[in-house]
Amino acid sequence: VESCPLRALDFGPIDELRKKHGDLAAVAPLPRAHFTKPNIVIKPNANSRPTGDTTGYLANPKEV
Length: 64
Prior knowledge:
Blueprint lengths: L13 H8 L11 H4 L28
């Protein structure tokens, strides 16, 4: 976490992280949070889509 130059990662008690960053825990293509109950907080990109959204596509299948 400390080595991330863009500060894209944060670490701490989940209550503090949710207070600081919100409580979003899933975006497409992840499953809905109520199924997996992830201990994660996601700060979405402006282009992110909600879970269940199927408008995305695999741009480069060779990367998979």
